[in-house]
Records
---
Amino acid sequence: MGILFNQPIKNIKLFLVLSLTLLLLVGCANTTPAEQKAPENQQDSATAEKAPMFAYVGAGLKEPFSEIAALYEQKTGVKLETSFNNSGALLNQMETAKKGDIFMPGSMPYIQKAKEAGYLGEMAGPIAYHTPAIITPKGNPAHITKIEDLAKPGVKIIMPDKEATAMGKTAFKIFDKLGITAQVEKNILTYAETPMKVAEMLMLGQGNAGITEISMYKNRDKLDVIEIDPGVNMPEEIPCALLTFSTQQEQAKDFLEFMKQEGPAIFAKHGFKTGS
């Protein structure tokens, strides 16, 4: 009787052991730690490759640079986060942050300052040129025909900041070259933060002449433009440079190469002078 009583218990124990073993085998087959971690590692690598870059760009270059950045993102998936400001402010931002990937100011003097500070690596350019031009309200009420006319008594001038903006610095080089700086300074109503604001203020009726980049002459129904004699004008090169504290050096170099290939045509489309 004892043997007959114990037999079912042994069978049940054997069934439970076999069932547990089978469950463990199925679980191991469906859950492989190495296989599950592999997609995560691949995703982390892809995310790192597509991390955004940061660019410091002159305010007057906003439209062409934005188009170039959008095309680059379409091609590579890499977004460029951008600070648009006057070149002096951009230098201050870099000195404070000590980070970023690309620097594209409005002229070479700001590149030189950044280089002397040890911020710059590889450089491309000139991509285009900052070309000063005189703008006036529609109808040219002060009858400006050449840059020397800005020195005439009674002319009310709006100028881009002569220390913080590339265009302001260039304009004063031209005034110095012509020996009219003192007379022009007497006619300056105010300094604007950027060349774009010079145009905005003139359209609002403040002043009757100003200096800005020739590409900004877009409101033809509200402004007139007087090109400066090439014999006295001083176009500034617009470069694009890689920053030494970039954490994405290879990606930044790739963007520089893209800028060299695509930049000139896009800047020309937006009214900038180029070497081509």
---
Amino acid sequence: MDCGGLGGYNYGLTRLGADGRTNKGVGRLSTITATDLTSALTGNPEALDVHLMLVERDVLIEGHSVKIHCHCLTVDGNGRVQPHRLAEFMRNAVVDYAIPRSKLAAAKARDAKYNSTEAVAELVERAKRSFTDLAKTGEGGEMLLFLLAERFLKLPQILCKMDLKTDTRLHYHGADGVYAGVMPEGIPKLYWGESKIYKDAGAAIRDCLASLAPFLIEPEHEETDRERDLVLLSDKADLSDATLTDALKKYFDKSSVMSKRVQYCGVALVGFDAPFYPKDDVKAIAEEIVEASRAELAVWSKRIGERLKSEKLDQMEIELFCIPLPSADGFRAAFLRAMGIKTE
């Protein structure tokens, strides 16, 4: 499966008919392929390797269309696992995640004009304020999903949900993220995102796939869980480049035949407590953590396969990240602390 971006766009070209006359409106949008969206991706992919070790990627389950990718936390030179460093890394990408690309581009342009950092600094504060202070927030998992989708899978986020929140104490109702990919023949893929970080692996897998299922398998009608996001995409999809953004929006306009070409896929993340991380002052050995993760991956994969069947997701294309953690609660607390958020 090609999970690249969208590309091959003919910017403003107009085709001629067989009689040599201009066919107005024809040719303004051609095939969308991987190249065009590459410029929309954010961040340095290699920075992920500082905080997350790849255990396995593209793990398949017979009879299903899922690909499982497993990462565990890295170990530093002193034999320590550093979830707080991971949280700080995530915090530093908060504007990329929470601010629409066009707004960030405009702020960068203004700062360049006036030789300042004022506009971007304002967006940093706005982005941080958009996160909830609820102790059981799932927004850390959603942001980790964003980083892995963009930097590992090369799937750009096309709808910035944090900018749509009207109350920081509430979570946005809809998918945990919306990302774009494309098939080699130019058929766009819309990746609905969902993340769950729980203590128990089975519960995280169960609830994550249960939450993802409606976005992928419900029949098309106005009361589906995905309908609000589709309406927003037709208006709010943002790739910074105005021409490319307008081209993308055509695929979410129900009055356009292009909307019939979109294939729905899923991108999901489950994080959970893993007993193989050392406790207290015991030094961690990276190879041992990787091997323990690899051994447990067979168990997690079996549970994933069972839940995919239960949710009727067997034939849906899903990219699923498994992230074993020293502590799900500890990860959540580290993220809130890095963000400077005091919980009640």
